[in-house]
């Protein structure tokens, strides 16, 4: 199964592959950002702030008349964590001209996202909201792409645990280049240099670890590097198989092995 | 969080290693589509409002639009990747899928599989002269016409080209033509023994 299955791989550089599962998961990672204008209900919509989390959190502005919210507001407004500045939000909203005829969902937690407040947004949302004159949100660099960490990488890239630093260091970093940031050339250079420095070790370890437990070798690698490591392992295994004279042996398809203990009942053909 | 369900589908697929096909999540798919419908309807309502001057809605409209696109991308990638796995099944496993795998497929996927089988068969017939060429055979270059096999589990009677039948019982060894056994070996019924 593994041999005949060719998934869509991640994109190269600043372009993502639409159908790639890897790219979808990579663009789910969050970045820090800042609201540039008043963005009502954004934090709630993102599942942050009080009372957020499960269920539908689609923000709605009710327009004219008796709009019944499809999802009944969940319980009472929870006190406790409220963003600063939201205290007067109720009056601010009324001030912005929602008339009495409309029946908005009066939940204070909706009124978060005033100008300048910090947010964590997933990459896909950042890319979507970013184009046009940048009046909606501005994105900042996550810390591992900043100056401090860049010097760490240039000192010795091999010791860094890239899996912990966001498992998609290279992919995410390449996507960051889409936002016009004055540091882009340095970021790009840093990502490239890190890869070059780490590559040798990955190649060596993948080509020499035959039939052993490789979990300690891959633990600190990010996803791109893990894919490289697996490619190396596959090459090694195929070569060893050939050396042992087993290259012509027809083998069980790995799908069958994966389904393992379950009993197969075949349909009559 | 909007879009979580769709990404959950993708995550599950990604974690199914070795190209395995996990069960078809019709319910989550339905919920995601429902979420998309809601987003779309609300945007429809808000766009006409925004056109008549309420510019503070523009952000909300864009946000919902981003969510719609995201959900669409996740669903399309999910369905496409499943089809890639099902296609691999035809090549690795053969043209008849066991029930356990079929249970994991949606009705449309089974339909797609049948049509793919047919296309492949038509193509294979058109290649290689009169009888056609079975491309799913001889994945590894053959060394001999007949091979030694051992049976890994009870399979029953098996008929070879010259009419003789062989009883495949567990642990029995046979010397059989390669082209007949290849598929059974890939399915795990027989085991190829090298001398």
TrEMBL record, chain B:
Main location: nucleus
Span of the signal peptide: none
GO-annotated cellular components: GINS complex
Localization (cell): Chromosome; Nucleus
Domain DNA replication complex GINS protein PSF1 C-terminal stretches: 143-194
Keywords tagged on the record: Chromosome, DNA replication, Nucleus
Domain GINS subunit: start-end pairs: 49-127
Domain of life from the UniProt record: Eukaryota
PANTHER family on file: DNA REPLICATION COMPLEX GINS PROTEIN PSF1, PARTNER OF SLD5
Known role: Required for correct functioning of the GINS complex, a complex that plays an essential role in the initiation of DNA replication, and progression of DNA replication forks. GINS complex seems to bind preferentially to single-stranded DNA.
Family: Belongs to the GINS1/PSF1 family.
Oligomeric form and interacting partners: Component of the GINS complex.
Official protein name in the record: DNA replication complex GINS protein PSF1
Organism: Gallus gallus
Lineage: Eukaryota, Metazoa, Chordata, Craniata, Vertebrata
């Amino acid at each position: 199964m593994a041999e005949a299955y060719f998934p869509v791989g991640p994109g190269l550089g600043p372009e993502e592959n639409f159908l790639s599962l890897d790219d979808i998961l990579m663009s789910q990672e969050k970045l820090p950002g800042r609201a540039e204008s008043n963005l009502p209900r954004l934090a709630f919509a993102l599942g942050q702030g009080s009372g957020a989390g499960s269920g539908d959190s689609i923000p709605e502005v009710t327009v004219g008349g008796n709009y019944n919210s499809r999802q009944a507001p969940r319980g009472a407004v929870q006190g406790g964590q409220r963003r600063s500045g939201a205290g007067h939000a109720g009056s601010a909203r009324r001030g912005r001209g929602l008339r009495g005829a409309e029946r908005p969902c009066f939940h204070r937690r909706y009124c978060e996202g005033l100008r300048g407040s910090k947010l964590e947004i997933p990459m896909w949302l950042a890319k979507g909201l970013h184009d046009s004159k940048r009046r909606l949100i501005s994105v900042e660099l996550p810390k591992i792409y900043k100056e401090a960490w860049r010097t760490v990488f240039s000192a010795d890239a091999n010791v860094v645990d890239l899996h912990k630093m966001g498992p998609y260091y290279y992919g995410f970093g390449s996507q960051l280049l889409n936002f016009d940031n004055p540091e882009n050339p340095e970021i790009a250079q840093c990502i490239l240099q890190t890869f070059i420095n780490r590559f040798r070790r990955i190649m060596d370890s993948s080509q020499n670890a035959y039939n052993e437990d490789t979990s300690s070798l891959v633990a600190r690698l990010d996803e791109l590097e893990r894919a490289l490591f697996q490619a190396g392992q596959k090459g090694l295994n195929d070569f060893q198989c050939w050396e042992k004279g087993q290259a012509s042996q027809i083998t069980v398809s790995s799908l069958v092995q994966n389904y393992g203990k379950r009993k197969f009942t075949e349909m009559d053909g | 969080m909007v879009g979580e369900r769709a990404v959950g589908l993708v995550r599950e697929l990604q974690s199914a290693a070795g190209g395995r096909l996990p069960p078809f999540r019709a319910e989550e798919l339905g919920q995601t589509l429902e979420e998309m419908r809601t987003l779309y309807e609300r945007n429809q309502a808000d766009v006409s409002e925004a056109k008549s001057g309420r510019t503070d809605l523009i952000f909300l409209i864009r946000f919902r639009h981003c969510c719609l696109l995201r959900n669409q991308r996740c669903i399309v990638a999910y369905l496409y990747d499943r089809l890639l796995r099902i296609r691999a099944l035809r090549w690795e496993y053969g043209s008849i899928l066991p029930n356990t795998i079929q249970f994991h497929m949606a009705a449309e996927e089974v339909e797609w599989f049948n049509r793919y089988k047919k296309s492949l068969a038509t193509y294979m017939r058109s290649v290689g002269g009169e009888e056609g060429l079975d491309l799913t055979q001889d994945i590894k270059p053959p060394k001999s016409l007949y091979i030694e096999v051992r049976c890994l589990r009870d399979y029953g009677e098996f008929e070879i080209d010259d009419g003789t039948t062989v009883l495949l019982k567990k642990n029995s060894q046979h010397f059989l033509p390669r082209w007949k056994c290849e598929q059974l070996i890939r399915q795990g019924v027989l085991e190829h023994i090298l001398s």
